Each structure stands twice: as C-alpha cells, then as structure tokens.
C-alpha cells in the first residue's frame, strides 16, 4: 500500500488513474481545480490551483505522498500565447518546489504532450522539438524546466501521452465514437491512416508500472504513452460501429471531404461550429506514429487488446446515458 497523489485527478486520464490506485488498495489524494467527473472520487479530492504555491504545499504536506503523478495542465489549443498557459510552466515550477519539501517522496511522473512536436513530425530524439501551438510551446518549456532541475532526492520521468481514448473521455475522441455510433463519420476512400493511439486502461497500467520500475530503467527518461501497435483508423471505426450495432462508416472520395471542410472553414470563420474543417481533415489524413519500443521494454505486455478496450468504452458510454 502506497500513498499516491495525482494532480489533475479530475481529468480523463487522472480519473482512470485514481480508479486504478483505489482498486490497488493504495491511499489516494486527487488535486484539481475542478470537481471530479466521477463523483465517487469526491472523498479523495482537494481543490488546488497550480498557480497558488501555498495551496499546493499545504496539500502535499498534509498528505505526505510516496509517489506523485503530475498530470494537471491547461490542455486546450485556444490560447494565443505561452502566457495563456502559465499553469504548464509557472504551475510546474510550483509543483517541483513543493516536491522538494517532501523528504519521503520517492518518484514523480510528469505528464507532457505529444504536441511538443507537430502532428506528422518524427523527432530524431527526445530533445528534438517542433511545436506549432502555444500549448505545445508551453509543454516544451515545461520539459526543459524538468530536465534542467538540479539534483533531487526523488527520481522522475516524463511521459508524452499519444491519442488516448476510453471511459471518461471527452473531446475529441468522444466525438469520434459518437460520430461512428450515429453513422455520421465519413472516412476518405481507399486511404490507410496509421496512428499511435492508446486505450486508457493500458495507459494507467503503463503509468503505474513506470512509477514502480527500477531506477535505471526510468530515471530522467522520457516515454511516449500508447498501445504498442498503431491503429488503422478505418478498421478501428468499423470495430466501434460493430460494438454499437451501427452500420459500417461510409468511405467517400477525398475531394468531396475537402469541399465539405472548406465549407466548414467558412462557418468557423463566422463563429459557428463545424463538424469538419480543413484543420480537422488534415489531422485525420496525417499519419501519426511514435516509437514505443523503449516503453515496451520497461512495461512488457499490456492488459487490454483493441477489441476489449472498445467493448469497455462502449459499455461505459451506454451506461452513462
């Protein structure tokens, strides 16, 4: 039994991680600035703002964690400048300073983002950055803050979640599942798109095992989080449709999707929501592959295959309604 503290415990991955450690019999504290999306987690929740160092320190010292997952961050892409993402930089510095005042702390897992590089870019190494958004830049700066820390009494590693999906998810992958269920997802005809995705049940298993792995395997290292084998988007969508009992998604010519996306751009320009824009279409069509062999070498086999992950997710979605 360990004392596990999770910042961002009300988020998607955080919610699943709280569940994982509670089922494991650990003593859990969840810190966030919003209430838990799983109301069963209310007894373990404390409201904390990353920009208020005194509040963080108070919560840390009261709980005295053995292990900390730092998942809390501003993650949307709506900010125009790095100043909009102070939670990811100043907030991170606050967390690190507070960690240094916990003599019993053993390890911290810091969550970064795959968007430290633009979609489709294959970095040469973990110091090869190529962000295109203010959010991505804030995460690059955050990684540098962590890597440039002076020596600590606790070990650490950085994780970059890929496209994670599963129970308790929201935008954008919840929208994808909804579109497939309703029969309104359209895939470009004859286009094979491979992407590094991850079922959240596997993701929290990976996180927990990174926390427990031997020092030489993880300390001061960076890992992408995701299922080891990439998914092909159209067969993935078909499996989701079959689990819902829906028809197979339509495949339509790419030029038609481009036309629809341009119409969506016009709607978006005037402040209206559009299901398809040129930006979203580009993301859909662009392969997104990450090398997870180093993570696989540390973690080994995962508990869920693709079909079982989809089944668990669809059951959760049906139960939520």
UniProtKB/TrEMBL annotation:
This is NAD-dependent epimerase/dehydratase domain-containing protein. Belongs to the NAD(P)-dependent epimerase/dehydratase family. Gene3D superfamilies: NAD(P)-binding Rossmann-like Domain. Residues 4-168 form the NAD-dependent epimerase/dehydratase domain. It comes from the Bacteria. Pathway: Bacterial outer membrane biogenesis; LPS O-antigen biosynthesis.
């Amino acid at each position: 039994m360990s004392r596990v503290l999770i910042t961002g415990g009300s988020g998607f991955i955080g919610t699943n991680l709280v569940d994982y450690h509670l089922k494991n019999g650990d003593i859990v504290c969840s810190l966030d600035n919003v209430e838990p999306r799983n109301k069963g987690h209310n007894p373990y929740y404390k409201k904390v703002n990353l920009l208020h160092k005194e509040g963080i320190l108070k919560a840390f010292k009261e709980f005295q964690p053995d292990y900390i997952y730092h998942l809390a961050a501003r993650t949307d892409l709506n900010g125009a400048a790095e100043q909009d993402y102070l939670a990811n930089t100043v907030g991170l510095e606050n967390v690190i300073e507070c960690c240094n005042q916990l003599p019993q702390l053993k390890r911290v897992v810091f969550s970064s983002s795959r968007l430290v590089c633009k979609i489709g870019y294959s970095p040469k190494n973990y110091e090869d950055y190529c962000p295109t958004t203010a959010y991505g830049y804030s995460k690059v700066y955050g990684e540098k803050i962590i890597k440039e820390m002076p020596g600590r009494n606790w070990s650490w590693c950085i994780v970059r979640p890929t496209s994670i999906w599963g129970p308790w998810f929201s935008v954008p992958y919840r929208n994808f599942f909804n579109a497939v269920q309703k029969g309104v997802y359209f895939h470009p005809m004859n286009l094979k798109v491979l992407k590094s995705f991850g079922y959240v049940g596997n993701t929290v298993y990976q996180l927990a095992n990174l926390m427990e792995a031997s020092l030489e395997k993880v300390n001061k290292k960076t890992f992408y989080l995701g299922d080891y084998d990439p998914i092909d988007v159209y067969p993935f969508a078909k499996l989701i449709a079959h689990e819902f009992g829906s028809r197979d998604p339509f495949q339509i010519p790419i030029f038609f999707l481009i036309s629809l996306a341009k119409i969506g751009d016009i709607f978006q320009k005037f402040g209206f929501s559009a299901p398809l824009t040129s930006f979203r279409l580009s993301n859909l069509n662009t392969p997104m592959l990450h090398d997870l062999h180093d993570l696989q070498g540390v973690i080994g086999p995962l508990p869920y295959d693709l079909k079982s992950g989809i089944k668990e997710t669809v059951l959760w979605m049906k139960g939520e309604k």
